[in-house]
Amino acid sequence: MKYVGTSVKAVDGAQRASGTAQFVTDVRLPGMLHGRILRSPHAHALIKGIDVSRAAALPGVKAVVTHEDTPGVSFGPITAFEDWQILAKDKVRFEGEEVAAVAAIDEATAARALELIEVKYEPLPAVFDPREAMEEGAPSINGRERNIVMPFKLERGDVDGAFSGSDLVIEHDYFTSQVYQAYMEPIAAVVRPETNGGFTMWLPIQIPNKSRLTYAKALGLAPEDIRVIKPFMGGAFGAKMESDVHLVCAVLARACGRPVRIALSRREDFVGGNPRVPMYIHLKMGFMRDGRFAAKEVEVIGANGGRTVYSPPIVATACYRVDSAYSFENVRSVGYSVDTNTVPTGAFRGFGNSQMTFALEGMIDEAADKLELNPVEIRLKNAVPSGFVSVHGWEIMSSGQAETIENAARISGILGRRSRAGSGGGTGGGVLRRGMGLASCNHVSGNKAFFPPFDGSSSIFRIAEDGRVQVFQGECDMGQGQTTVFAQIAADALGARLEDIVMAEVDTQISPFGLGSFATRGTTLGGMGVKRGAEAAKEMLLQAAAEYMGVEVSDLDTEDSEVYSSKDPEKRVRFGEIAKDFMFARGGMPLLAQGYYNPNTVAPDAETKYGNVAPAYVFGTHVAEVEVDTEIGEVKVTGYWASHDVGRAINPRLLEGQVEGGVAQGIGWALTEDMVVEEGLNKNPTFLDYRIPGSRDLPRVVSDFVEPVDPNGPFGAKGIGEPALNPVAVAVANAIYDAIGIRFRSLPIRPQDILDALEEQSRQR
Amino acid sequence: MSKRSITLTVNGDPYEVVTAGTKRLIDVLRNEIGLTGTKEGCGEGECGACTVLLNGDPVNSCLVLAGQLNDVEIVTIEGLSEAGSLNLLQDKFLEAGAVQCGFCSPGMIMVGYALLTDNPKPTEEEVREALSGNLCRCTGYQKIVDGILATAEAMDSSPLRPLSERVEA
What we know:
The complex is a heterodimer of chains A (765) and B (169). Chain A starts with 12 loop residues before the first helix and ends with a helix. Chain A contains 19 helices and 31 strands. The model of chain A has no long low-confidence stretch (mean pLDDT 97). The radius of gyration of chain A is 27 Å and the shape is globular. Chain A has 765 residues and is an alpha+beta fold. In chain A, the strands form eight sheets. In chain A, strands 3-5-1-12-9-10-11-22 form an eight-stranded mixed β-sheet, with helices on both faces. In chain A, strands 7-15-14-13-8 form a five-stranded mixed β-sheet. Chain B folds into two domains: 3-78, Ubiquitin-like (UB roll) (Roll); 88-157, Orthogonal Bundle (DNA polymerase, domain 1). Chain B contains six helices and seven strands. In chain B, helix 2 packs across helix 5 (142-154). At the A-B interface, helix 1 and helix 17 of A face helix 2, helix 3, helix 4 and helix 5 of B.
């Protein structure tokens, strides 16, 4: 193989680095208008009347729309929980809910028009904490019993028996905060109304085909009436799934019969997006003296926000995905996703698994200390090998988990460099205390539960007469490098030169139905879809070449965009020459091939949750080194090591980039990032007040890759996106414990939290 | 709203723009002149995605108003590459893996360009300091820092010539 395994430069990098890459907000259409959305200033209120007459009369305003102008259909990303309206009907359920919208000749006119819309609200009692929202008598937000969107229950093994037979039982409450994905490109849409009643939509979106189904329902159209084009996308991290902004833009476009562009301001994006589900986690675990995990019991309560995006499956994920991270046998989970009068929450890298990993890996660290084991041996004791079938039926074909634990420990040197402040180790006694912490994680690479009809992937290959190989597929590069990885897979599977591969942008009118980018599925499933398409194209090409060259097809193979005879290597013909001959002999019909991959996954049973959700499963182990300033409470992450089971590294440099970015996001989650919400109102919707890590806030990350080669991945490869973030916050928390002997079970860990805890510690000593 | 006529040089070309004095430079570049390589990430000077060079210095173009602009020289990301080829800094960004989604990249590259123009052999600390006003959510900065350091390494003693030296895209 020529390209797989090498760090080729991003194939679309030149466009991104030169400013020529077209993002949605760069799309300019003739007659295009500018849209703005009027959002609720209340967390919960009745709408008693909307007067748009003054706004509509403003010169330059082309349309003002409210609920009356929408089809009025209830819809949502998950068909079981359809509680969305394009524009609010009768009441608003969270600050930022879309109430009305304006299209005007420019942004400034649209902004002025918004100020002229008069909405009469009657505030309602509101509830913001999901635990309070579940209490009897709490204000009802969407008419659900106790505001519970979805209860989740699962039990396997003899949990009570295992707890009573445990040598050590630990039980704690944990809290993981609401954080914002903070992609650099805010949410946007450009929508053109078509004369057949449909729309062409340019969207930064991870799931063009799935969202098209949802949008068709909301707009009262058939899916084929909607064409979604996904140009270059400026980061997503789970946030760019279905967005009401796209639909408001369509309603405006229809109302004025012209294309409309909406680009959220950053402040608006904070309340117009769908941040991470904040969770209260009550975790209890039983351990055997030798470190084996005997039993696990958990209760999870997550805030859904005012309408349902993806919190139900995220809470479900938190409830049981970690059960397949180790060789658990006895597990019990209860979870609730609960309506609250806060911004609707959704997917953020990790999808609930990162929340639970924070609790689980903190507790494992604690147990290791109590059992006088080190953090490496307790995890190795419970690690799962290749071929393992987990307690929930997940078939882990390849597992490099143990190697990631060993490698992370080795490259960081953690076992010899810990401070052991928690067990009376030397902390130096000075102002600056150093510590190291380790944490592991698992994740899926694909998720059958997400879209029940199918979870495969496919591609179409067109070998053009000039020798270029155009590849059409329906997954989505959001900036993570998927286009490059697919091009490498296509080139090697077809025997083409990388520079001849042309990856088409995703356009639902042309591309195959791809599920899109989520659940760390791109490389594994999308990559297999591309590989199968390439294999079909190669077969077709060799047939055509055999005819053209007058050679037996079994003697032919491909290399460097040429077909050659293995019997006579001098006989070489370029792809383009064969394709041209093929096409000219057939009235111009292109040499077109397609292929697909359907994984052998099993959707979890609705009742028991038993199944096998992904074709491949991934593992990773991180070590963080911190320095805690005990005078001012500041925590600095001074070193970081990450080992990941990636099946096979298709592009090591891109993999490192994913790891480094995930670590940065996790450090932000651990230490500085937090959406501050008071009485349902967002208090810090700017990068000045919501601090994501900057260039001086991060250590160098040392990455390591373990390659067990998965039979279900393209050339053995598995995904990396989410596991890169999952263990970070808890690795930092475990390192803080090592430095100062205090265990933090709530995020973020701010300087004041450190100082308060140190004071409490000194009182107790 | 009163409008005024402003003359400015962008990437070496002369422009005359008639616009409100309160119009932001980023809007003049993107909407009036049609150079959409400059990105808006926050509109409040906090993310640096819209960084351009104003008379050689990096500025957030969302914080500069048209009224402040007469007879100035602006360089945008489009001014660094010509006829489809990248300059050394852009190429080193790609080699290092410094570009993921690419939304912050124009701003990062402008800052890197300004830094290397002033200081052709910066330390890692100096690079991180120079980038401190620019946010990136994909890379964790490590490869951006590496891309700038690798450029410095590849430049000879005369900073501008190698920077304008074209490499194949």
